[in-house]
Amino acid sequence: MPTFSAPDGTQLAYRMTGDGDPVVCLPGGPADSLYLGDLGGLSTHRRLIVLDLRGTGRSAIPEDSSSYRCDRLVEDVEALRNHLGLPLMDLLAHSGGANLATQYAARYPKNVSKLALITPGARAVGIAITGETRRELAQLRKGEAWFPAAFAALEAITKGTGSDWAAIAPFFCGRWDAAAQKHHAASQPGNLEAVALFAAEGAFDPEATRAALAACEAPVLLLAGEFDLNSPPQSVAELAGLFSDATLDVQPGAGHYPWLDDADRFVATTAAFLG
Predict the structure, then answer these.
(1) Tell me: the pLDDT tens digits for 38-92?
(2) Residue 6 CA, distance from chain mean position
(3) 190-223 core/surface letters (b: 16 or more CB in 10 A; e: else)
(4) How would you classify residue 37: left for phi > 0, otherwise alpha for psi between -120 and 50, otherwise beta?
(5) 62 preceded by a cis bond (ω within 30 of 0)
(6) Sign of the C-alpha dihedral, residues 182, 183, 187, 188?
(7) Which residues share a beta bridge with 51?
(8) Between helices 147-159 and 131-138, what is the axis angle to 10°?
(9) Which one, of 242, 244, 269, lies nearest residue 258 by Cα?
(10) Of residues 101, 21, 94, the one with CA closest to residue 260
(11) How many CB atoms lie under 10 A from the CB of residue 247?
(12) Structure confidence by residue, pLDDT tens digits, 227-271
């Protein structure tokens, strides 16, 4: 796995899959990027350059733990672009990685050719998701066998009386079969310090980020999953409104990992956007 040096000297790793023009991919979490796989076969259209964020996968643990903060990770992405020798880059990010990609686009708008945000998190721009929004979305799954227990756990979490996050895992997948259960487990972060400090105080300045995004003229794809409790379509639509050239696509029957729920549709949509 190739590596490069971050501005503070931390050695960061990335993997390359497929052929064609490159697209830099940022995982959510922060978690081991292996859960992205080849994004359902997107690698047959583009060469995926998948970054292991610092302290995850094969990237080194930094000496300064405060460098796990999302806004500071922006310079790791810029260092990767320079390492790859890309004047401009297509950038794809999943889940919490969209907070990093959004801040990158705000800081370096002229370095992004296209931006694909897949079931994106939106803390970087201050979009809040209410418990009521999540409950209403969850009701779409009431015909599922696992629904009663999962919904009870969700109710407790939203009311602040429970914390059984594992019990609500089915809500993040379009179908809760053995493959989805294995994939969801593999996507969970292993470096809890990196997770805790990713959104530490000072990591986000929503007002400044929103203002800076006005200078980002790159086309943006925002792909939401119909059933995704983490990044509800309503919130993704609100995020889309912050960009001057945005395309919103809601994938039917999909959860938080749309390339797992319907790889063909996900790849067709994303590949068509990236060109």
Answers:
(1) 999 999 999 999 999 999 999 999 999 999 999 999 999 999 999 999 999 999 9
(2) 21
(3) ebeebbebbbeeebbbeeebbebbeebebbbbbb
(4) left
(5) no
(6) negative
(7) 14
(8) 170
(9) 269
(10) 94
(11) 15
(12) 999 999 999 999 999 999 999 999 999 999 999 999 999 999 999
With beta carbons less than 8 A apart as the criterion, state whether 176 and 146 touch: yes
Burial class (CB in 10 A: 0-12, 13-18, 19+), 142: exposed
- What CA–CA distance (Å, rounded) separates 176 from 157? 20
Residue 52 carries which side chain, given as an amino acid letter?
A: D
DSSP codes joined into one string, 27-61: -STT--GGGGTTGGGGGGTSEEEEE--TTSTTSPP
Q: Domains, the chain, ranges and CATH?
A: 3-126+191-274 (3.40.50.1820)
pLDDT value of position 186? 86
Q: 141, 160, 51, 161: which is closest to 151 by C-alpha?
A: 141
Measured from the Cβ of residue 38, the count of other Cβ atoms closer than 10 Å reads 16
The beta strands (E) that lie in the chain are given as 3-5, 11-17, 22-26, 47-51, 89-94, 112-118, 220-225, 246-251
Compute the distance between CA of residue 199 and CA of residue 223 in angstroms, rounded to an integer: 23
